[in-house]
């Protein structure tokens, strides 16, 4: 009798164990990942936007909200927090007044020398840069220049670029393509000035009749040039 | 003798044809300029047939003009990180030619006017008749690209809508 009870208990335990095993084996080991919608291939917009700035036709200020928060992508805003150029002279704002949630700021003027700005604006940032551009050729100024670029703009990800009007973003795209990035992963989505979506993060606000800027909201990537190894001209 | 006359006549005709062809090739327009508007032109308010200058205005001044049903030309430009687009200098050449003043408004201010309901991108050149938009250049349209970039195309487009002289 006692032996029968033990046998029944053992068999019951075995059946329960088997059941649990089958149950967990049939369950997926991790929650099924949501399929990411396929990105349209980069394609230039019509007119001035495409031809002058290289802004994308399919993913731009009006559609970017559909493509935010993708793990296969990075989002970069190419403006400075405060650009030394006198943009007020052309009715603009030298400060970064807002951005799209998810975009991190990597200022284009720290990557390469900026040229060709309107005369009234004067010089933009004229300090140290990772690269020097001359006649469309980009020469590194530091041994770490390429590694830093690859860190900010990982080659295995889609890269969404924006700035104020589309200019710095277009210049960044040209630079990366010139340095070997896959142009099918680079999207210049245009300018924050034209964005009216649901992911605005306001930086500029008014306090006591004056404009103040909440830059603490911005994820800002600075470059500490003093810690980099300069490439001398003799090399 | 008769054959000689015939020969001279043939050579003369060939020379005339060749000369005509050369003149045609040398004088034909490089590329026909598309004029997309053939309706009735409008005249700007008299004050704008003046010096061929850009007049810097703020949004309140432009709102007043719209309220007063004024007829004028407006250039709205983008700023900050943009590359210099020579479109304002292209427009300037036509303005100089006809001494027409154009109102200039930054895009930031422009966005706070009802004009922004229609014109969503800068830079743009906007024709306003009696306080309403008659036409404007679109930065996202191929057909307007040459109008931003080439003086003759801009002038032709403007001339199709606006009386360039009083």
Pick out its properties.
heterodimer, A: 235 residues, alpha/beta, Oxidized Rhodanese, domain 1, 2 domains, two-stranded antiparallel ribbon, 5 helices, 10 strands, B: 166 residues, Glutaredoxin, 5 strands, 15% strand
Structure description:
The complex is a heterodimer of chains A (235) and B (166). In chain A, helix 5 links the parallel strand 6 (158-163) and strand 7 (186-191). Chain A has helices at residues 2-26, 47-53, 108-111, 145-152, 167-178; strands at 73-77, 98-100, 104-105, 131-134, 137-140, 158-163, 186-191, 200-202, 204-207, 210-213. Chain A contains five helices and ten strands. Chain A has two domains: 1-32; 47-227, 3-Layer(aba) Sandwich (Oxidized Rhodanese, domain 1). The model of chain A has no long low-confidence stretch (mean pLDDT 88). In chain A, the strands form four sheets. In chain A, strands 3-1-6-7 form a four-stranded parallel sheet, with helices on one face. In chain A, strands 2-8 form a two-stranded antiparallel sheet. In chain A, strands 4-5 form a two-stranded antiparallel ribbon. Chain B has two domains: 1-30; 46-161, Glutaredoxin. In chain B, strands 1-3-2-4-5 form a five-stranded mixed sheet. The model of chain B has no long low-confidence stretch (mean pLDDT 88). At the A-B interface, helix 2 and helix 5 of A face strand 3, helix 4 and helix 5 of B.
């Amino acid at each position: 009798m006692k032996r029968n009870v033990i046998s029944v208990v053992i068999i019951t335990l075995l059946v329960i164990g088997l059941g649990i095993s089958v149950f967990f084996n049939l369950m997926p080991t991790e929650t099924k990942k949501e399929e990411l919608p396929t990105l349209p291939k980069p394609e230039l917009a019509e007119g001035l936007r495409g031809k002058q700035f290289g802004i994308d036709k399919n993913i731009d200020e009006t559609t970017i909200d559909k493509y935010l928060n993708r793990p296969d992508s990075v989002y970069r805003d190419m403006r400075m927090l405060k650009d030394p150029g006198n943009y007020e002279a052309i009715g603009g704002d030298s400060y970064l007044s807002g951005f799209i949630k998810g975009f991190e700021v990597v200022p284009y003027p720290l990557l390469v020398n900026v040229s060709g700005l309107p005369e009234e604006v004067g010089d933009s940032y004229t300090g140290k840069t990772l690269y020097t551009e001359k006649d469309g050729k980009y020469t590194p100024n530091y041994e770490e220049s390429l590694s830093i670029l690859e860190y900010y703009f990982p080659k295995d990800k889609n890269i969404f670029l924006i700035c104020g009007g589309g200019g710095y973003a277009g210049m960044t795209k040209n630079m990366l393509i010139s340095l070997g990035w896959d142009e099918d992963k680079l999207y210049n989505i245009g300018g924050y000035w034209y964005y009216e979506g649901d992911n605005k993060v306001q930086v500029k606000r008014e306090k006591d009749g004056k404009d103040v800027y909440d830059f603490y909201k911005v994820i800002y990537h600075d470059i500490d040039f003093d810690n980099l190894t300069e490439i001398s001209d003799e090399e | 003798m008769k054959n000689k006359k015939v020969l001279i006549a043939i050579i003369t005709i060939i020379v005339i044809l060749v000369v005509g062809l050369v003149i045609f090739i040398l004088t034909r327009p490089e590329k026909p300029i598309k004029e997309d508007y053939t309706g009735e032109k409008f005249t700007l308010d008299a004050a704008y047939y003046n010096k061929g200058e850009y007049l810097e205005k703020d949004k309140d001044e432009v709102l007043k003009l719209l309220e007063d049903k004024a007829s004028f030309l407006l250039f709205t430009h983008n700023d900050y990180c943009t590359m210099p687009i020579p479109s304002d200098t292209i427009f300037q050449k036509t303005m100089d030619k006809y001494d027409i003043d154009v109102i200039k408004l930054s895009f930031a201010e422009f966005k706070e006017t009802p004009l922004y309901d229609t014109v969503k991108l800068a830079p743009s050149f906007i024709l306003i008749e009696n306080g309403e938009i008659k036409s404007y250049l679109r930065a996202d349209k191929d057909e307007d690209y040459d109008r931003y970039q080439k003086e003759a195309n801009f002038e032709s487009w403007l001339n199709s809508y606006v009386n360039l002289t009083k």
